[in-house]
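Hey,

The postdoc asked me to send both predictions to you directly instead of through the lab channel. I've kept everything plain text so nothing gets mangled by the mail client. Protein one:
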Amino acid sequence: MSKMYEALQYAYTEQDSKSRERLVPPLFVEKPLEKKEDTLPPVVRTLAEEEPVLDYGNAGLSMEPEMLQLHQSITSLLPDTQSNILQFIGSHSGVGTSSILREYGKVIAKQYGKSVLLIDVDFQPSSSQHQAFGVHPREPLQSLMQNGGSMDSVITRVEQTRISLSRFADNRQSNLHVSTSHTDYRRIWEFLRKQFDLILIDSPPLGSSVDSLALSAAVDGVVMVVEAEKTRSPIILTLKDRIIRRGGRVLGVAFNKQRHYIPGWAYRWL
């Protein structure tokens, strides 16, 4: 299980006389920063090669504090509505998007008593939210939009929790941006808003699917998930720009798989 170093980081740019990018502080603010020229900073960390490194990425440590901070940051940027729809998109495969989304949903359901719906967009039987919770998937939401039916046919409730699961399509369906219009998206989202307090969309990375872009304009906000210290700034900027150009609203960046460094003097005592 990956542990996040930063829950959410807001991005802005100030160009100096040499047009250099400047780093921004962690988000955790009461209100959005004033609009600046679009940019996102790289993750910068200097470390001598001889310094020891500990990686807590798979240590199984609790993510609850980070998820609560993430929730505070997100809600400060969202409209004050009874229900919100958030989309999580990774910069590339393997950054832990599904894990972060799942842990976020579990913490919100447990700590706030909210009803949470997790939606798999890029459904793969071997790596889906359904598999993680050990439940069998039902018909996809896209089938409901195209053929009609009841919500019970497309939503699976996880026993003894306030979490439900669904999938947008199955692995036989693709090109969601072509087969389903924005009107259809908004129609199904508005219906789901009446059923759930929070809807989280687990999207594939843009590098492997364009379906994520097709959905971004119809949600309340997008959280980009990147791998700390490995995802280059131009990649983050490109991802952000593509989402914005399609009408999506980028709330910020969640840095995952952050390494925790131990100074040499402390390491000698371990």
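Protein two:
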Amino acid sequence: MTKNLKIAVAVTIAFAATVIIVLSIALRYVGQPMPVSLEVPAFATALIALMASVVYLGYVL
């Protein structure tokens, strides 16, 4: 993969993870939280993906 493609992949994963985190917080704020069976794994997976994409982006750059 080219360097630009690697950067695009890392940024896309970070954006998707951020969207999941923001959606989880926003749904809780408006009083319609996701079911706990979905929210906890989704939030944890999004945090792990966000951290991994930041580390990968640092490695690529």
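Summary for protein two, as requested: The first helix runs from residue 3 to 29.

Thanks,
C.
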